[in-house]
Design goal:
This is Hemolysin-type calcium-binding region. The protein has one domain. The chain is about 0% helix and about 45% strand. The chain has an eleven-stranded mixed sheet, with no helix packed on it. The N and C termini lie far apart (about 55 Å).
Length: about 190
Amino acid sequence: MKRIARRAALVLTTGALALTFTGGAALAQEAEGGLLSGTEIGDTLSNAGEQAGEALGGTGVGEAIMGSEAGELVRGAPGSDALSGMGGDDLLSDAAGDNLIEGDAGNDRLEGGAGLDLLRGGAGDDALSGFGNNDAIFGQAGADNLDGGDGDDFLFGAGDGEADTVAGGPGNDTCVVDETDTVSDCENVVTL
């Protein structure tokens, strides 16, 4: 286990995993078994390496956590986080707060939480789930699966010509889709 304390910017390299920290207050970090968690307000964590299967997670308030071109597991924490998978097939998940979650390239799984979340899939066949509250979910390129969950959600599967599956869930949802998309549980459907 490595324990790192910092007040400014820090770059940590352990094997094939390279992480960059910026911003935030004084921070103590522990890196063990490929899991790294932020612990203070305003941290930015990014995986600059190309080690597939690494896990990045935040435990404070307001982190920005970015993956790499490899596939990662990225978990936010309480507070409003910005999660980005970059490349690779990623799992990005956040349980609380109002979050921005972006899959970018790869076949990604994005999971919002109890807050007002903005989910953007990017290129690839992505699965995006808003779960609770009023979320905005954009599938973008690829044959995506969009699930609003509870709340009054806005789901956008149009514009790429791919056969998306769009499910609004409980609430008063608006779904913007192509003619090739499959739509369910959506009170307001706009076909482009």
